[in-house]
Amino acid sequence: MMPPNFSKISLELVFAILFGALVGAAFVVSMSNVSARWTLVILGSVIAVALLLFVTVFSNKLKLSLLIAALLSLPIFFDINFFYRDYTPFYVSANGFSVTLFDLFFFPLFFYWLWKHNQDKSSSFRFEPVFIWFFSLLFFFNLLSSLISPFPFYSFSALSWFFKAILIFTFFRNNYKDEATLQILGRIFALILLLQGIIVLEQKFVGAIFTEQVIGKQINIVSLIGNQEVKRVAGSLSHPNNLAMFLNLFLPVACLLFFEEKKVAWRMFFGISIFLALLAELWTSSRGGWLALAFSGSICFILIMHKQGFNLIKVLLSFIMVSILAATVLLTASETFRTRIFGEDYGTADLRVPLMQVAENMIVDNPVLGVGLNVYAARMQHYDNTNEYVSRYYPFPVHNTYLLMAAESGLPSLILFLALIVYILWLGLRSFYHLKGINEKMILGLMGGVVTWLIHNLVNLDDAYMNKAVWVLLGMIAGLAYSQKIKFKQREVDNINE
């Protein structure tokens, strides 16, 4: 007599075998018919879906599975652009309406959260009026800038990323504030650093797996510094400066949680991730990234010491001595570091200065609404009165995110954006002095990551609304700060009742 569930088990087994066979056949066919990049996309997608289903089925935690997948996809730029326009005659940061790998995981997560919130009215959902005002005003100025743009299609393409940034901020503002989930998030951040470190190691010493054909973007550049050519790696971020900026967002969190982690195995995991990420950072040869990380690390160290009651003068002197020692070790041990610090970087200043002059001309002539969102490169020749006529041989935006934002969407837009970030950092700093344990380390590390981004953008180009990782961090800071505020008020009420 057959077991009662035998037919069901057999049917499931048949479906599993058929699915596996179809996936295998599709993969074999893809290897001979599509590029290596899309073959990797197919393979990665199958593995990701399989892991997602595995974790979901065995842990019954769909939300956590989607979160892990979304965060791990942050530095992976496989996307599909709807309404993409070929042969665009100038550089744009957005062309069409993009659906990224991150979106495929984040939006199900976002709508699942909304659905759960609708089912459970007791769950928290909050969006403070101050944020509504900030985002409304930012949208207003960016919309006007898009409407006056000579190429509105590209402007509205960029504006679509603004809405994504708001959704990311809103979601992380309202979720993941308990210690258990923060611990998981910290480990995911460390895993992100570990994976980028492994990719950079392979690119540096092997160069056969994570190639330009597979990743679909530039994986390194060669800079002439002094009399020496320096190969600068980019990981999966298309440019060494972008890689350094991305690593810096998560390094402060990982470093602080390393000391908070109680389990030896996880502490070793954090240590290896941090070491590989710092090694990758060194090989980017990004001086802006190095400076941003050093400054942010200094601020985090000083804040921790100040909170613990140490004398600030003694802390500063101790930190200066440690910094001198660390710089001496790096100068002695690393030729890359030594060359980038003391070598003459041909063409860098010659390029950056005239680009800044062009941006200044744009801002002076269009101070309120700018020249149009995402059309800087299209308009730069009109404002190029430099002796070098830089726009002819370098038709790309200025290497300063703040000048770019002011030039494209106006000074009010830039001021509002910076005011929003300063306000969130102020909320985080105020909460830091009341938090303890992993909450304390997490919020300080998140603020440290945002500070690195702010500093690096003084000498680097980044689209503020397209950098999804920044909005993840900003949302988490706002959420942790609000959570601390609620707990503090509750303690005051309890004390009064006693």
UniProtKB/TrEMBL annotation:
Keywords: Membrane, Transmembrane, Transmembrane helix
Domain O-antigen ligase-related: 273-418
Spans traversing the lipid bilayer: 12-32, 38-57, 64-84, 90-115, 127-148, 154-172, 184-201, 243-259, 264-283, 289-305, 312-333, 410-429, 441-459, 465-482
Gene Ontology cellular-component annotations: membrane
Family annotation (InterPro entries): O-antigen_ligase-rel_domated, WaaL-like
Coiled-coil regions listed in the entry: none
Top-level taxonomic group: Bacteria
Membrane topology: Multi-pass membrane protein
Name of the protein described by the UniProt record: Membrane protein of EXOQ family, involved in exopolysaccharide production
Protein species of origin: Pseudoalteromonas tunicata D2
